[in-house]
Design a protein that fits this description.
The complex is a heterotrimer of chains A (117), B (188) and C (140). With 188 residues, chain B is mostly helical. Chain B has helices at 2-24, 28-48, 52-77, 90-106, 119-122, 124-135, 141-149, 151-172. Chain B has 2 domains: 1-83; 116-175, no CATH class. With 140 residues, chain C is mainly α. The chains are: A mainly alpha (117), B mainly alpha (188), C mainly alpha (140).
Chain lengths: 117, 188, 140
């Protein structure tokens, strides 16, 4: 089954690069934040798949189960998701303020208005 | 085992397709909705990978709260991405392909997916799984690790969330009462 | 949203169950999947549905922003307070073993209280975020 495992990692990298491309190439700030989220999710997949064991149950103790998945990545990613939405909210709030001050959220326009940014 | 791997890989292919759709779409409203679908699909993937707690959080946060926040932002900033017919941009694609190639090269050193003998599985995880019922008597190991073993870490996370709320309140919390500051451009 | 009768009726029917489920996830987090983070978000999504259906002003009549800010800070305070309490009772910061006569009971109390603090902060912060974003979008 290692063949499928390799494809797992390939798709993680594809998702990560899709997010990175969105952040670099798109000029709209909201689109950039979506790209950042896609990037972030690919890292989450990576962690969770490291914690996965074939045939392992979820890490809730039960009678007659001997093999559990690794709980540590779950804890890390669980908190990372909630912190991720908090940082997304700050980014979106900044976007709103930029729109109110400059009248645009397109990177090109902002650059023309204020060459120092 | 094979079935789980197949579900896992097909969900990942879905996610890859959705991310391509996200890249290509110009309507931001549609992009946010597709991002909601992306989050829901990733929640299913977490469920397949036996991470019920994470799936829970992702479904509520990704498909719920962050989609709503993005929609609220779009209601202020407008839903259309500016489409200028610019020439094909080479530099971002170049950066992304080089970074991707380096990461693909690094795959060779990664442990096989789902193997119980992986390095991540043999250090602290067995300690948690064996000792958590004895030391805390909480059946959900994720909760016991989150709240007890790594309690200090979680305190930091909670402070981060509180700080983010504080930051947003400082940035957009109160509407400014000075009418002179209102430019004509703020109404669109 | 005044014209969407079906959404309003179904929403009204659904919101209590969403919040009840949030409480279940909060207090059942020791035994099944769940915990403060998930419960907070689920509880907040009850307010999200209400705001979407009935408007921001109705939500503000139920919970004011000032109240939510106090709750948001007090969640962190409860969490850190458990740490300080365990120090006062002779253990290390956030060492729950000393909170009760036997370590297992101490762990139970500690985990329950700090999960409650997490739930308070997450639920109130998420609701607050939504209310601030929605407030900004209203025509002034």
């Amino acid at each position: 089954m290692s063949g499928l495992g390799i494809w797992n990692y390939v798709i993680f990298i594809f998702l990560m690069m899709a997010g990175l491309y969105m952040v670099i190439s798109s000029t709209n700030l909201v689109k950039k934040i979506i790209g950042l989220n896609v990037f972030q999710t690919s890292v989450f997949f990576m962690y969770i798949s490291f914690g996965y064991i074939d045939g392992g149950a979820g890490p809730v103790l039960a009678e007659g189960v001997t093999l559990y998945s690794n709980p540590l990545p779950h804890v890390l990613i669980l908190t990372a998701i909630v912190v991720g939405v908090a940082t997304t909210a700050v980014g979106l709030a900044l976007t709103i303020r930029i729109k109110e001050s400059f009248g645009s959220i397109e990177e090109d326009d902002l650059h023309k208005m204020d060459p120092s940014i | 085992m094979v079935l789980e791997h197949l579900i896992d890989i097909s969900l990942l292919v879905f996610l890859a397709v959705i991310s391509v759709a996200l890249l290509r779409i110009k309507d931001l409203f549609a992009a946010v909705m597709i991002f909601g679908i992306y989050s829901l699909t990733s929640a299913s993937l977490f469920m397949v990978l036996a991470a019920a707690d994470v799936a829970f959080t992702e479904a509520a946060v990704g498909a719920g709260i962050s989609t709503i926040l993005m929609l609220a932002t779009l209601s202020i900033t407008g839903r259309e991405e500016k489409t200028i017919e610019r020439k094909f941009k080479l530099l971002p694609l170049l950066i992304v392909s080089i970074t991707g190639a380096v990461l693909l090269y690094g795959i060779r050193d990664l442990p096989p997916f789902g193997d119980a003998g992986n390095p991540a599985q043999v250090h602290v995880a067995p300690r948690y799984i064996e000792q958590s019922p004895v030391e805390t008597d909480v059946p959900n190991i994720v909760t016991s690790v989150l709240a007890s073993y790594r309690g200090f870490d979680t305190l930091g996370e909670v402070v981060v969330i509180f700080t983010a709320g504080l930051g947003v309140a400082l940035i957009i919390g109160r509407r400014r009462r000075l009418p002179s500051k209102k430019e004509a451009s703020s109404h669109e | 949203m005044n014209d969407h009768l079906i959404l309003r009726v179904v929403g009204k029917f659904l919101i209590p169950y969403v919040m009840l489920f949030g409480l279940y996830v909060q207090f059942h987090g020791d035994f099944g999947p769940g915990g403060g983070f998930q419960a907070g978000v689920i509880f907040a999504s009850g307010f999200v549905i209400y705001t979407l259906l009935f408007g921001l002003r109705s939500t503000q009549q139920i919970v004011s922003e000032g109240f939510l800010r106090v709750i948001s800070a007090s969640g962190v305070l409860i969490y850190a307070g458990v740490g300080v309490a365990s120090m006062l009772m002779g253990g290390e910061f956030l060492n729950y073993n000393v909170l009760a006569a036997n370590p297992i009971a101490g762990q139970h109390i500690g985990i329950m209280v700090i999960e409650f603090g997490v739930g308070l902060t997450v639920a109130s912060t998420m609701t607050l975020l939504l209310m601030m974003f929605a407030e900004r979008g209203l025509p002034s």
